[in-house]
Amino acid sequence: MKVRVLGCSGGIGARARTTSFLLDDDVLLDAGTGVEDLSVEELAAIDHVFLTHSHLDHIAALPLLIDSVGGIRNKPVVVHALPETIAALRAHIFNWVIWPDFTEIPHFERPWMVFEPLGVGTVVELGGRFVRSLPANHTVPALGFHVYNDHASLVFSGDTGPNDEFWQQVNSVHNLRYVIIETAFPNRDQDLAVTSRHLYPIQLAEELAKLQREAQILVTHLKPSDREVIGRELDAWAGRFAPRVLERGEILEL
Hints:
Elements: E1 2-7, E2 20-23, E3 27-29, H1 40-44, E4 48-50, H2 56-59, H3 62-69, E5 77-81, H4 83-92, E6 113-117, E7 123-126, E8 129-135, E9 143-148, E10 153-156, H5 164-170, E11 176-182, H6 190-196, H7 201-208, E12 216-220, H8 227-236, E13 244-245, E14 251-253
Parallel strand pairs: 3-4, 4-5, 5-6, 10-11, 11-12, 12-13
Antiparallel strand pairs: 1-2, 1-14, 2-3, 7-8, 8-9, 9-10
């Protein structure tokens, strides 16, 4: 299994794309603006989308994805998300005001998109690949994900503040290879980070101290305007795990 980093930024700008990861050719974790760099053929191959939460930087490309390829696919795209996330998408995006409701297009019996609710701990199997929902601590109901096969595991925190339950789950993963974890703000903005339930470098170090497994730590969701500052502060507060900033276009092997 390969995980391709389509977007891992906390904002937009030159070469900055918001959160989205492509598992092999057919599964997305989040649907931020990174999805928009895929070709029509690549978009049409996506069968499943797993959403961490409802914030725009994680769902921005989903409406356009469905609109672009729904008519050339022979089955609906399955969107897996918390019930609260699904409700938010129905109320605020796929509501016939902002965008059409593709669960009814071209007909409710032949939709281009279907929703599949997730709960914390839900495991979805996709041909020998598994996606397990993990707890997250954010300003809206949110998830992280544990992606794994028989060989290795990747854990993605989603957007989160401090979260002991998340680390309890991560520490139970015996074949952990990668931890992708957010750090959105520099240390000077720790009040904002706490209010918005994001991490900052000092707090990331405190969270990583809870990790009892060996893994490569990859940091995502940096605000583009503070990327260099956050990078320097990560180096200063790295600790034994030596986290590095994730780059768009990377491919992670599992």
